[in-house]
Design goal:
Layout (H helix, E strand, L loop, with lengths): L1 H8 L15 H22 L9 H22 L5 H25 L12 H31 L3 H6 L1 H19 L3 H31 L13 E2 L1 H23 L6 H24 L7 E2 L1
Helix pairs in contact: 3-4, 3-5, 7-8, 9-10
């Protein structure tokens, strides 16, 4: 492009010499190339996004603040708000940060990126989990307060607002994966995500509540009682019907999940949600709630 610009701005004779400056074409072209290279080098040095910068002082600050933040979040989300436990956790976090800082100060250079810099990604991941946990707890608390004020049960909140919020990320991810050419992976994620939530999430929370409710070793671990409402039974029945219909409809359709099957699933979910809302508003089955 630079060479074409030179041809447009100057006229050259038959010997390849500029008639205005009386300089050969080769010298003009080399000078322009050197100027462009110098400008690119200056822009690279001034723009931090063009190079992988290493700031040891910033990492040192993160070594102290990130564990402290995670400790405070962990204590704030715990049931036992004992201030002595918080002080002990902060002290342990401070000792660990000092040891990590000494390793960073002794084995790294202020100007050279260390070989094991990728390990900081795990620290950032832990801080992200702490942020997500905090925001999720606040959102759940706010929505539950709204449900108490409006008289909405926990089952309806879980089936509507919480379900949409929990599945929105999966919806975007599955659609993106399917458009990239991996429909089997997206379909597997549709079943794997809820299965992980049911088996792993409910399993861990059930174990935690069972151990937490146990008083003494002689009594043992008491079972955690779950209130089975009418809306929950309707949702469970709808889920079973959906799986059975998929087991029949997909083979009959030549193992192709067509648009017709997709619309059928959407209609089935919408119908069950509307029925749950009608049951909740009308109060049907509230007297028949039982505990499991």
């Amino acid at each position: 492009m630079c060479q074409n610009q030179l041809y447009r701005n100057h006229s050259y004779g038959p010997t390849g010499v500029d008639e205005l400056t009386h300089q050969p074409l080769t010298s003009l072209y080399c000078a322009s190339e050197n100027l462009i290279g110098h400008l690119v080098q200056e822009n690279t040095e001034l723009d931090p996004t063009l190079t992988k910068n290493w700031n040891r002082w910033l990492v040192s600050l993160q070594i102290f603040t990130a564990p402290l933040f995670m400790v405070i979040i962990l204590w704030a989300n715990s049931a036992d708000k004992n201030i002595f436990i918080l002080i002990r956790m902060i002290f342990c976090s401070f000792i660990g940060s000092i040891l990590t800082y000494l390793i960073l100060f002794l084995y790294t250079s202020p100007n050279k990126e260390p070989k094991y810099r990728f390990l900081l990604c795990f620290l950032g991941f832990a801080v992200s989990i702490a942020w997500i946990s905090t925001i999720a707890n606040e959102v759940v608390g706010a929505l539950k307060a709204v449900g108490v004020i409006l008289g909405i049960s926990d089952a309806i909140l879980g089936l509507t607002i919480f379900a949409v919020g929990n599945s929105l990320g999966d919806l975007v991810a599955d659609i993106t994966v399917a458009r990239l050419g991996y429909p089997i992976m997206a379909l597997s994620a549709c079943f794997g995500g809820p299965m992980l939530n049911i088996l792993f999430g409910v399993g861990l929370s059930g174990i935690y509540m069972t151990v937490k409710e146990s008083t003494t070793e002689d009594v043992g671990h008491v079972p955690y009682e779950i209130e089975i409402s009418t809306t929950l039974m309707i949702s469970a029945f709808t889920l079973l019907v959906t799986l059975l219909l998929l087991l029949v409809a997909v083979p009959l359709n030549g193992w192709i999940i067509s648009r017709r099957i997709g619309w059928g699933l959407i209609i089935l979910w919408s119908t069950s949600t509307v029925v749950n809302l009608i049951v909740e508003v009308s109060g049907i089955g509230k007297d028949s709630n039982r505990e499991l």
